[in-house]
Amino acid sequence: MGQIINGKEVALKVKEDIKNFINNRKENNLKTPKIASILVGNDGGSIYYMASQEKVSLSLGAGFVKVILPETLTDEDVIAEIHKLNEDDNVQGIILQLPLPNNFDEKKIIREISPSKDIDCLTFESQGKLYMGEPKFLPCTPNSVITLIKSLNIDIAGKNVVVLGRSNIVGKPVAQLLLNENATVTICHSKTKNLKDVCTAADILVVAIGRPKFIDKTYVNEHAIVIDVGTSSFEGKITGDVDFDKVIDNCKFLTPVPGGVGALTTTLLIKNACEALKDNEY
Ligand code: NAP
């Protein structure tokens, strides 16, 4: 029987460090981190993530401000709000909830976030630095994947890692972070041939495809570490890309959904805001 990697437990340690950092600053009458989260329209997933970000931020002592904008606005209106936050010395981190409604030009708007406040690593500058191996902020979901693997105290260098999914927000940056750790990385996608053969050869399998329960025991080997990034709504429940019940007995470690990758992501976002605060002081 494989072991469960508990994202909530790993998050506790990071949360403790953040609380200590913020309390220490409060005691010394220093500025504490504040995050601004922009929601355009009323996407259900975005409303859920924003509420969760607010709850975790406030519980750790960080400030949180919600900027809720109607979808009847223009690109320029949203950009004007971003500019205001870029110039606000009391805001260290800006989150733009994605996806934006279809009538907005997402790429054009993202470009306007100041890279020094881009705690979600969305801008060209942040992504460019990541791919040059000099990231300012680590993107939160990919960082959560790496942090969970590292929590097992294994040496990632030289491991054969397969990343299933090649999106700009998950698959590609996960692969890059693993490459930075000297893993041998294979990226798979919907056109990959012999997918099962590639996946079963992996020491570490990271799955981010958004297909609930797609990965069953025929895709893993008994020594594999399996990280499930998927969060799809399936039969009324948040469900991962891995069929947990069928895989847990046939691998070495597996992250659950919920309680795995997602349980750590928001905490890492607030950690980035603390880093932004430190960086902007020097
Ligand atoms: P995405 O943009 O839809 O990308 C999906 C990727 O999976 C694509 O590269 C696609 O290949 C590949 N794919 C789809 N079906 C496949 C199949 N049958 N075989 C092989 N590859 C396949 O999704 P995303 O934004 O990366 O998100 C992936 C999942 O992670 C979603 O469930 C999302 O909700 C979740 N997520 C979770 C967190 C968290 O914090 N836990 C954060 C972000 C996202 P092609 O490129 O060839 O189309």
Q: Name the helix and strand elements from N-terminus to C-terminus, one letter apiece.
A: EHEHEHEHHHEHEHEEEEHEH
Low-pLDDT runs = none
**Total individual domains:** 2
E-strand count: 11
What does this protein look like?
A 6-stranded parallel beta sheet has the order 1-11-8-7-5-6. A 3-stranded parallel beta sheet has the order 3-2-4, with helices on both faces. With 282 residues, the chain is an alpha/beta fold. The protein folds into 2 domains: 85 residues, Rossmann fold, CATH 3.40.50.10860; 122 residues, Rossmann fold (3-Layer(aba) Sandwich), CATH 3.40.50. The site of NADP nicotinamide-adenine-dinucleotide phosphate (NAP) has 24 residues, from helix 10.
Secondary structure layout:
Blueprint: E1 3-4, H1 7-27, E2 34-40, H2 44-60, E3 63-69, H3 75-87, E4 93-96, H4 106-110, H5 124-131, H6 140-150, E5 160-164, H7 171-180, E6 184-188, H8 195-200, E7 204-207, E8 225-228, E9 232-234, E10 237-239, H9 244-247, E11 253-254, H10 262-281
Parallel strand pairs: 1-11, 2-3, 2-4, 5-6, 5-7, 7-8, 8-11
Antiparallel strand pairs: 9-10
Helix pairs in contact: 1-10, 2-10, 6-7, 6-10
This protein binds NADP nicotinamide-adenine-dinucleotide phosphate.
Family: Belongs to the tetrahydrofolate dehydrogenase/cyclohydrolase family.
EC number: 1.5.1.5, 3.5.4.9
Binding site for NADP(+): 165-167, 231
Defining traits:
Rossmann fold; 16% strand; binds NADP nicotinamide-adenine-dinucleotide phosphate; 41% helix; six-stranded parallel β-sheet; alpha/beta; 282 residues; 2 domains; globular; three-stranded parallel β-sheet; 11 strands; single chain; NADP
